[in-house]
Predict the structure.
Amino acid sequence: NVTGVPTGASYEPMIQIIRECLPTARRLGTLYVPSEANTVFHKVMLEQSAVKAGFELVTVAADTSAEVADAATALCTRGVDAICQLPGNLTAAAFPGIASAAVKARIPVFAFQSSQASGSPIVLARDYFDAGKQAAALAVRVIKGESPARMPFQPITTTRLIVNPKAAQAVRFQIPDRIL
């Protein structure tokens, strides 16, 4: 008797954007949180999309917000061409540490949460705000008497491309004109 709007990330389109921006790239990096089931799930999904496109995915775990900056620094020393940061609670809250490590290493960060646009040249976001609007439409249907058991889960339909030229400049990364 439930319905809803899951907010999965847009992995394959992001991998295509990374390939367009960095045609010779081979290794992507990301941080994940082993104790957050959502980031473990997202890590698997990103890895499948990355491998399918010919990328190797390098992962580094972080368990607390205090570990994120050091984990990001460690990730930047592992020969990654870019960071493709998974969505997650801890990594979103501690994202400035990831962005700072990437700037020092001159590695672009691609992200999936609009809140990370300040430190990412490119974000491809499916956000809770948009999912909430979609879920509200489902709630209206339930209020009007429709059974939630008959309403399948609906994937989020809005994806936002956010481009931050200032973040790109900080890592000396050129965003292709087509994306701009």
Notes: The CA atoms of residues 79 and 142 lie 51 Å apart.
